[in-house]
Amino acid sequence: MHLSEIIETIYVIKYNDSNNLEVNLKYLKSLHITMATHPLIEFDFDGMKFIPNLSIETQVDYDDGFWTLSLPFIDSVGYADDFYDAERMLKEHVHFLWNEYVLCSEDELGETGKMLRKILQDIFKVTG
Hints:
By secondary structure, the chain is an alpha+beta fold. Helices cover 29% and strands 40% of the residues.
């Protein structure tokens, strides 16, 4: 299920005091979206270009005014009150993980770190 399939625009149609038809856009005060997905496409961050080697869907959650975008298989999360800020934070965290686990010496990593390094290398081609 994609995010665009979940969020719908709600209109209220009624007659006003002058007996004219009135159409108003109504916003939802409380909207909770769970387990929607959003594609993670090629992105640049801090001079590095991250190119997915396969189709990557981020999990999207919206609750109480905050967006959460996550890639659970690498334990990466972006969280903010604006969708695009949350997406930027997710990309920033992917960048951080790449620097910490791929650009370091393999000798510095434990078994879990080596597994994360391999996953990152499998899902992204990085240049720059």
